[in-house]
Fold this sequence. Notes:
The complex is a heterodimer. Chain A has eight helices and seven strands. Chain A has helices at 33-46, 118-127, 147-157, 164-168, 175-187, 195-208, 219-223, 231-246, and strands spanning 3-9, 18-24, 69-70, 73-74, 96-100, 109-111, 114-115. In chain A, a hairpin with a 2-residue loop joins strand 6 (109-111) and strand 7. By secondary structure, chain B is of the alpha+beta class. In chain B, 39% of the residues lie in helices and 15% in strands. Chain B has helices at residues 17-24, 30-33, 45-57, 95-105, 112-132, 164-181, 247-254, 289-292, 301-308, 325-329, 339-354, 368-381, 389-415, 470-490, 504-523, 529-543, 550-570, 582-606, 630-633, and strands spanning 37-41, 60-64, 82-83, 146-147, 157-158, 185-188, 191-199, 202-210, 216-220, 223-226, 259-260, 265-271, 294-298, 322-323, 363-366, 424-433, 436-437, 450-452, 635-643, 646-653. The longest helix of chain B has 27 residues, at 389-415. Chain B starts with 16 loop residues before the first helix and ends in a 14-residue tail after the last strand. The interface between A and B is large, with 78 and 81 residues.
Amino acid sequence: MKITLKVWRQKNNAAKGQFETYKLDHVSEDMSFLEMFDVLNEQLINEGKEPVVFDHDCREGICGSCSMYINGRPHGPKNAVTTCQLHMRSFKDGDIIVVEPWRAAAFPVLKDLSVDRSSFDRIMSAGGFVSVNTGNAQDANNLPIGKEIADEAFSSAACIGCGACVAACKNASAMLFVSAKVSQLALLPQGQPEARKRVLAMVNQMDAEGFGACTNTGACSAECPKEISLSNIARMNREYLSAGIIAE
Amino acid sequence: MSNILDSKIPEGPIDQKWTKYKSSVALVNPANKRSIEIIVVGTGLAGASAAATLAEMGYKVKAFCFQDSPRRAHSIAAQGGINAAKNYQNDGDSVFRLFYDTIKGGDYRAREGNVHRLAEVSSSIIDQCVAQGVPFAREYGGMLSNRSFGGTQVQRTFYAAGQTGQQLLLGAYSALQRQVGMGNVTMHTRHEMMDVVTIDGKARGIIARDLVSGKLERHFGHAVVLATGGYGNVFFLSTNAMGSNVTAAWKAHKKGAFFGNPCFTQIHPTCIPVSGDHQSKLTLMSESLRNDGRIWVPARKEDAEAVRAGKLKPNDITEENRDYYLERRYPAFGNLVPRDVASRAAKERCDAGFGVNKTGQAVYLDYAAAIERYGKIEATKKNLNNPDKATLIVLGKAVVKEKYGNLFDMYEQITGVNPYNEPMQIYPAVHYTMGGLWVDYNLMTTVPGLYAIGEANFSDHGANRLGASALMQGLADGYFVLPYTIGAYLSTDIRTKAIPTDHEAFVEAENKVKAVIDHLINVKGTKSVDYFHKILGKIIWNECGMSRNAEALKKAISDVQALRAEFWSSVRVPGTADEFNTELEKAGRVADFLELGELMCKDALERNESCGGHFREEYQTEEGEALRDDENFSFVSAWELTGDNQWNLHKEELKYENIKIAARSYK
């Protein structure tokens, strides 16, 4: 296939960015989207130009590194798929594809398509954990957890922290990401002792990082490659509300 | 045989060594811990768990990862599960059985003392992870669920759908971030370790490169812990992440740390086959699929040819014309033989002309029988009498979806084929490296104060790792072993004050790193880094992959040497050293792979026997099984770098006092 790419190029955080157009003549439909970028970069290097910088690592849809905003959608046109698992058979010969980085004040661009998502780590540091030091645990089966609860906690925990929810949101809100972690631990008995403190601390940090407010449009969940449910946000709102009322 | 290798295995009966060690090892008092700094490089299961635990204990920890967040380390991609000798299934499991299975699975090339310790702490890992909120799979009664994995006859594998590595890493990451938030760990993301700094023979810090600014940084530590994973990417195509590399371990090797068993690499039997030249990596389909799937190729060559030509579909091949070759060759373990055995058997069938994709390099993994079997069970649960086959299939598919849904979806995404309706195609691919930095019982390398944990060391898996044991080892090392053993060293170091990083050793190390980077930038050649990496990968895959022979290995060594020379004279690294430069990152890593590749071949050439993942064609039984030579090769190879690509081999003899060494049979 022949593909035309319009790719956001930006030297560094301080520089002004712009779109560059590249043409690829021999794209195979078996290639992943990132393998097409490998081909583009090989071409650029051979032409003596600088390759496009983009984040990627596992290329199996689980590490959450890849983060391309493709034709106006995070991770591209297919549902429930990360950029690395998107294959060129989802496009057709002659397509023009526009590729941008995640756009959000809390995710500053580092270079080209790579952004700084360390704000997510700081939110996790604020409360996304159970305070249990190594060596403090009782026997695992002493704490029976019903299968339905365990499964629901798992589906919240399946978040890969890629930030597509933020990129999809018109307000650049991080509510889906934060609520997935709050939900996982709110559902499980292990998370109970710190539940109130956790939700307040994580939401405060989220606000401090400059993420926008949630207006319940649901774009985050619709674009989430792991299909994290919107009900997590509802659960977090309930947790937050009750924590605010009960807290001294 | 040299005597400089001291494994420091404690004396005493096998089941008391670790207990006694723990109660007698020197401790560091809390006040002293506060002034001791530890560097941890890598934040996968081993690194994140170690950094978190050391910080909980009161040490000052600096952690480093090249990814943009510690949560992205490649442990995240582990699918199937984690072993533990809990015996929750009441099927006769015990610490000794896990110990025995691991030693046997490793083809009698691992240390008894280390492996027994691993089996002992395995239970605590599950307890710790559950306490952190890791959502393992559970039964309706609320108890933890288990499944079976290759090389064992008990169900001891704990799992979270097909995303066990992700859930365990997020658990360790949450513990780590908690310590970051408390100020006990300083986290340096997007940093790559470029060298180990040694002072008076001891590891005292590292040189790191900030990958965004390109700036070189000096960091002091009383001890340095490498948790930097394996070197499978030397093959270019592997199931490793794109960034996985050997650089930290290799720099340590160049600073005096011996490299153990470099030729022991694991080729995983169930990966999605290669589709074309553009391919950048291979994708694993979890070994847990072998629980329920049946592996086969056509029994008749003409059928295989018709399948390859696209004239015959697998579902049209009748039962009697299928060759379930694992069940045929290994009736006792069937589809659950260990990985090395399953991989070689697939290669054997494909080499004999029975492979099933365009390239002839694939076999089938079939779920039809499992879907029907689960359908029947569900029908019974629902009190359906004499359901028709279509109903059974609908019911069965739902069960399979629940167990393996994400894997099946991933398969369809990559191949465009629906695996619920048609057998999957699989082929072996490089997955894990049992070899790594040589460490003693304390997990310390031959450089005092320099530790290696997780896949980065060579210690527990011998010549072949069993499924669901990598997660176990990574977390065992990080949560429960290193935090104790490092005290033995640090307790003697409490008087050492932090060494200022303007010390000449830091200056010299930084200058050397800078010189190498400048060299790479200034070659200004004509070929990209990937060009060299792909050629290197093909050499190692063809000559030092699933089967090896002396002649090919000798040729591979000279080929790698020639390629290395060409790399340094004609690689093209665009851009500059003082910016975010991903090609420069890759160039540094491939430069190290080009040296490691030679050592792997050398090690494979030296080991004149077949064991585990190391199959030398000259040494096999009449039935084509691996032929070990315990009399001459029951040792760990520990390679010492003596000059530019010059090595000395040291041998650590392996003693088996608790397990009767035998031919490894799964028949």
